[in-house]
Design a protein that fits this description.
single chain, 178 residues, alpha+beta, Rossmann fold, two-stranded antiparallel ribbon, globular
Length: 178
């Protein structure tokens, strides 16, 4: 966890420097750009009370993309779009749920839902194949639309981990930390 906190970076090293490609200090790199290159899967993954499909799609949504939705940006498959940027504001980590909770109108929430729905299901299935999700999804009654609770009691630890890995991989990070 310390290495992760230094790589993200949530704090600076007390001594020395973290260097990228033998030439760039992490202190000199744009934080948003750097974090967009990293995918993290925690030891005990958190799944949202929603479908398996949407749990994978959620990593493509960030507070930056919510602002972009308001400004009319297109998120469909463009790797440089705001959907693929990190989820930080002013160097502090925030979550999509924090941002959604600040929304007061139904239309704001509908915009978020619309941006989630704009991610093609085929992209979720393609990523899922890479992390072996179809093996257990095939046995579920609603396949990728099967709802999982926030405690994910319907899934084994390995199944939750695979969904979490899929959520990280769909962003196509340059660095994947497990």
């Amino acid at each position: 966890s310390t290495i992760l906190k230094l790589l993200e970076p949530f704090y600076d090293p007390t001594d020395g420097d973290i260097v990228i490609n033998d030439s760039h200090s992490l202190k000199d790199v744009d934080l948003k750009w750097w974090r967009s290159k990293i995918g993290v899967v925690s030891q005990d993954p958190l799944l949202f009370s929603n479908s398996i499909k949407n749990n994978i799609k959620y990593s493509l949504i960030s507070p930056n993309s919510l602002e972009a939705v308001e400004n009319g940006f297109d998120f469909r498959g463009n790797s440089d779009s705001s959907l693929n940027r990190d989820n930080s504001k002013n160097g502090k980590c925030t979550s999509i749920l924090d941002e959604i909770s600040k929304r007061n109108t139904t239309s704001d929430l509908l915009e978020v839902i619309s941006s989630i729905n704009s991610v093609e299901d085929s992209k979720v299935v393609d990523v899922s194949k890479k992390v072996l999700i179809p093996r257990f999804v095939a046995s579920l009654p609603d396949k990728y639309d099967t709802l999982v609770g926030s405690s994910s009691s319907k899934l084994s630890g390995g199944q939750k981990k695979r969904i979490s890995i899929g959520r990280a991989v769909i962003r196509n990070p340059k660095i994947l930390i497990l």
